[in-house]
């Protein structure tokens, strides 16, 4: 993205969506967790032109996982995926690493991506 104004707009929107995604993921994690990993896998959906986003939230220290998520998480990850795709940065995997402090607040969160090929 070479246009500084477009880049700034992208980054502002990315921060807003990531904050919503993080709130939803953290609200799903048990309070006693000190770390969590959210994995989102994007794949073709059941109908042409659709996509499926598979979510997994786990504690890498204990192996515990969460299987029930609020709708807000699905909306946030879909919006996050759409934002990157609209800027030719479509990802097929997003991994969010979250560290909590002793009061359950987010101390640090990072996102890493595995990008889709230009043709798929």
**What is the helix content?**
25-40%
Low-pLDDT segments: none
At the fourth level of CATH, the homologous superfamily is: BH3703-like domains
CATH fold name: Murine Class I Major Histocompatibility Complex, H2-DB, Chain A, domain 1
Let me know the average pLDDT.
92
Which structural class best describes the helix and strand composition?
alpha+beta
Specify the CATH class: Alpha Beta
Strand content: 25-35%
Extended strand count: 5
Number of domains: 1
* H/E series: HEEEHEE
Helix count from the secondary structure assignment: 2
Distance between the termini: 20 Å
Shape by Cα distribution: globular
**CATH second-level architecture:** 2-Layer Sandwich
What spatial order of strands do you see in the largest sheet?
3-2-1-4-5
Largest sheet: 5 strands, antiparallel
Rg (C-alpha, Å): 15 Å
């Amino acid at each position: 993205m070479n246009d500084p104004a477009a880049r700034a707009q992208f980054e502002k929107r990315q921060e807003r969506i990531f904050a919503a995604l993080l709130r939803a993921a953290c609200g799903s994690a048990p309070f006693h967790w000190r770390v969590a990993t959210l994995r989102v896998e994007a794949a073709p959906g059941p109908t042409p032109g659709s996509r499926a986003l598979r979510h997994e939230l786990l504690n890498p220290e204990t192996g515990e996982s969460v299987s029930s998520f609020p709708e807000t998480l699905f909306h946030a990850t879909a919006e996050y995926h759409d934002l990157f795709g609209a800027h030719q940065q479509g990802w097929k995997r997003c991994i969010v690493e979250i560290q909590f402090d002793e009061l359950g607040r987010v101390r640090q969160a990072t996102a890493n991506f595995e990008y889709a090929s230009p043709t798929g």
